[in-house]
Design goal:
Blueprint lengths: L5 H6 L2 H31 L3 H17 L4 H16 L3 H37 L3 H34 L2 H24 L8 H26 L15 H74 L3 H28 L1 H8 L5 H15 L2 H16 L3 H26 L4 H28 L2 H11 L1
Length: 463
């Protein structure tokens, strides 16, 4: 009942395939959110300087992982297309080859980070204590880059194969090990040394190392055809090239989004001060939770589209995209309606003592966000349609336009030219989401009518 095979994906109920594949991914994404909360809890025991340092390091880490994301998405898409084409041996090679390339790149980035951690931290703050703590965290995180690259790339291979339960097991292992080690290494409980922020990053590194080890063990045992064989682990340059070709635009998409978010934080802080910044952060955290189901559904849709194109069923891939978009839009509309009605109680779940101007701004932002929730559900799943077809450059250009051509200009013009204050910044977020949903849906409809999915199916078959 809860298993989905290749035959189900390319010939069974699309709604069932999408929901069953998405369920473990949604659970996994919720676990990642919980992991962040637990990490913050233990780091918070070290004081405000440590919390500020981790917040700063998180920005640096997000930028450092940009090139690695090419392997995560590329591995999923190329694997799914080859599984759909029933090319089992070729499909097996993709995750292992992609993981080897990702680990090599992560090791190179990590080596540079170890040497330049102090200099990198100094670029972002002139507070000596925060800079020192940030550098300590980044030094240990160099190892985490390597283990995360291995774990996440192999996990993407399982997802592309349609074995999202294995992907859940891999990620849960990484998260549980990380959470257990946090207090031991951060605070030095029992026989463990007190490593503080160095220990926090080391716990992450060990956790994802355990996740990568489980992924290899599951592959060695053999699951759903994803099996560790001598042929599969032999690196092939052409496979790396195929993965990078598909995944590079996703890396560019992620990088452009991260830089734009830094710009939005600067505008919010300049226009509304600390109260508006708190509201923006709380709204982002609430939205992160709200979007978890839609993101899981989009990951599942990418694999479903890819496998159907590999099986030369472009019409079914097209239908899968629209079914996923409808499910996501309806689900997020319901969540948005609840958020619009009771914004203050939702804000207090995240910050119990929130009051005054910060609470007023947060209520305003949560209600404005609610108007565009349906749109982000559409954005995620329609992007999955393009990504599953290997047209990841569309997602990249759409995101860059969403943030740089709509969100930032609306926020700047509304706040500074029209003098609408911080509300203009909040509306910039929602309007950019709605605009992206409209143009992506229109472009996908037109592209599918123009034979995009047919060509993608032909290319997948040729590969």
């Amino acid at each position: 009942m809860f298993d989905v095979t290749r035959d189900d994906i390319v010939g069974g109920s699309l709604s069932r395939a999408l929901v069953v594949l998405a369920a473990p991914l949604v659970a996994q994404n919720f676990a990642l959110v919980a992991q962040s909360v637990v990490d913050l809890f233990w780091v918070g025991r070290l004081g405000g300087t440590a919390v500020a340092a981790v917040g700063l390091a998180t920005v640096v880490v997000a930028l450092l992982t940009v090139p690695l994301r090419a392997f995560f998405t590329g591995s999923q898409v190329v694997t799914s297309q080859r599984v759909g084409a029933d090319e089992t041996e070729a499909a097996r090679r993709v995750p292992f080859t992609a993981a080897a390339a990702a680990v090599a790149l992560a090791a190179a980035i990590g080596g540079v980070l170890v040497v330049g951690a102090d200099a990198v931290a100094a670029l972002f703050t002139d507070d000596a204590a925060v800079a020192s703590a940030t550098a300590s965290y980044l030094t240990a995180y160099a190892l985490a880059l390597v283990t995360t690259a291995a774990s996440d790339t192999l996990e993407s291979g399982f997802t592309g194969w349609g074995d999202t339960r294995a992907a859940l097991y891999v990620n849960l292992t990484a998260i549980v090990v990380n959470v257990v080690l946090d207090p031991l290494l951060i605070l030095g409980w029992g026989a463990f040394p007190r490593l503080e922020l160095f220990g926090a990053a080391l716990a992450t590194a060990v956790g994802y190392g355990a996740g990568a080890a489980l992924a290899l063990a599951l592959a060695a045992r053999g699951r759903e055809g994803f099996r560790l064989t001598r042929d599969a682990v032999r690196p092939r340059l052409e496979t790396v090239r195929a993965v990078v070709d598909v995944g590079s635009p996703i890396a560019g998409q992620y990088g452009g989004r991260q830089v734009a978010r830094l710009g939005m934080i600067w505008i919010v802080s300049a226009v509304g001060g600390p109260a508006a910044l708190a509201a923006y952060h709380i709204g982002s955290q609430v939205a992160t939770v709200a979007f978890v189901p839609a993101q899981g559904l989009a990951q599942a849709a990418t694999s479903v589209v890819g496998q159907n194109l590999g099986a030369e069923r472009p019409a079914r891939a097209r239908r899968a995209t629209w079914v996923g978009a409808a499910i996501a839009a309806v689900g997020l509309t319901v969540f948005g309606a609840v958020q619009w009605v009771v914004p203050a109680p939702i804000a207090h779940v995240f910050v119990p003592d929130l009051s005054g101007q910060a609470l007023s701004y947060t209520v305003l932002y949560l209600q404005i966000l609610a108007y565009g929730y349906w749109a982000l559900g559409v954005v995620y799943t329609v992007e999955a349609g393009f990504n599953g077809a290997g047209n990841t450059d569309v997602s990249m250009y759409s995101t860059l336009a969403q943030y740089w051509a709509v969100r930032l200009p609306v926020a700047l013009v509304g706040a500074y030219v029209l003098d609408l204050g911080v509300a203009a910044v909040f509306w910039g977020v929602t309007l950019s989401n709605v605009a992206a949903a409209v143009w992506l849906s229109g472009y996908f409809y037109r592209s599918a009518d123009g034979g995009m999915l047919d060509r993608a199916a032909d290319e997948a078959a040729a590969d």
